[in-house]
Amino acid sequence: MEHKSGFVNIIGKPNVGKSTLVNALIGQDLSVVTPKAQTTRHRIKAILNHDDYQIVFSDTPGIMKPAYKLHERMLDAVEETFTDADLVLYVTELNDRTISDELASKLRGLNVPLFVLINKVDTGDQSAVEAAVQHWKDLLDPVCILPLSALHKFQLDVLLRYILDVLPVAPAYFDKDDEVSDRSVRFFVSEIIRGVILQQYQKEIPYSVEVTVEEYKESPEIDRIKVLIHCARETQKAILLGHRGSAIKKLGTESRKRIEAFIGKHAYIELTVKVADDWRDNDRLLKRFGYE
């Protein structure tokens, strides 16, 4: 059998299940998944390896109207997906048929195959699925329209077969032995902690926070990690710390458990909270945080 390789870029609105889909396809939690919108901030490549193929999935931030320079940088990452893909997956959910005219025009004008994935089909009945399929066929006329449930792994095997049908014959782009992403362990540690923040804190706090790993010392038995949590205002710092440090202690405990599961050994994590005034609109800080 000829070897296939290719780049499969995934786009869609916030919270339609793009990250859940990527994690389910590769069998590992690389993208942060929470019920909150705008969870994914960076474009993350997740690599699915097999003897006969290598698929490089690209999870992107949700498409939204930007409120900060941070959001503009996130949308820049989405724009890249239109230019460097072998296949584009547009993910929507069963009960949402809205799309901007600009995006619809871009999707119709792609030079590569387009699949429309109707996620969360477990939330409706067959007639709703049929109506959604017809809607997207009329609007975008993609190569494939597939109803599925990323959460329940329904139809993912079918999706994988369809993807392989359209990918080009090519050698692997990344080392198959140990590559599951183009991102570093440091990056995923910061994403794990940010994911816990999204779950532990409410309202504006998670969206006002950025996490950076300042020091990572490896050893055979334990990795020692120093982490800075950047927030936009002093009031947010107080909430992150909690009464007598109770909230930051809880955050550290849960983060350590998840990081240890990810790296496969013990970890010691030192968390420090620092105010970076309005960092979401600061070009210098956005560049430092990896939003080029």
Features:
292 residues, alpha/beta, GMP Synthetase, Chain A, domain 3, three-stranded mixed beta sheet, 9 strands
Structure, described:
- This protein has two domains: 4-166, P-loop containing nucleotide triphosphate hydrolases (Rossmann fold), CATH 3.40.50; 185-288, GMP Synthetase, Chain A, domain 3 (2-Layer Sandwich).
- The chain is 35% helix and 23% strand.
- It contains nine helices and nine strands.
- It has helices at 18-26, 69-80, 101-108, 126-140, 156-166, 185-200, 234-241, 246-263, 283-288, and strands at 4-12, 44-50, 53-59, 87-93, 114-119, 144-147, 210-217, 222-231, 266-275.
- The strands form two sheets. Strands 2-3-1-4-5-6 form a six-stranded mixed beta sheet, sandwiched between helices. A three-stranded mixed beta sheet has the order 7-8-9.
- A hairpin with a 4-residue loop joins strand 7 and strand 8.
- The longest helix is centred in the C-terminal third of the chain and has 18 residues, at 246-263.
- Residues 31-41 have low confidence and may be disordered.
Q: What is the H level of CATH, i.e. the homologous superfamily of the largest domain?
A: P-loop containing nucleotide triphosphate hydrolases
User: Could you tell me the number of beta strands?
Assistant: 9
Number of domains: 2
Order of helices and strands: EHEEHEHEHEHHEEHHEH
Taking strands numbered 1, 2, ... along the chain, how are they ordered across the largest sheet? 2-3-1-4-5-6
% residues in beta strands: 15-25%
The CATH class designation of the largest domain is Alpha Beta
Number of helices: 9
Largest sheet: 6 strands, mixed
Q: Kindly name the structural category.
A: alpha/beta
CA radius of gyration: 20 Å
State the helicity in percent bands. Answer: 25-40%
Low-confidence stretches: 31-41
Report the principal-axis shape. Answer: globular
Mean pLDDT: 82
CATH topology descriptor of the largest domain: Rossmann fold
CATH architecture grouping of the largest domain: 3-Layer(aba) Sandwich
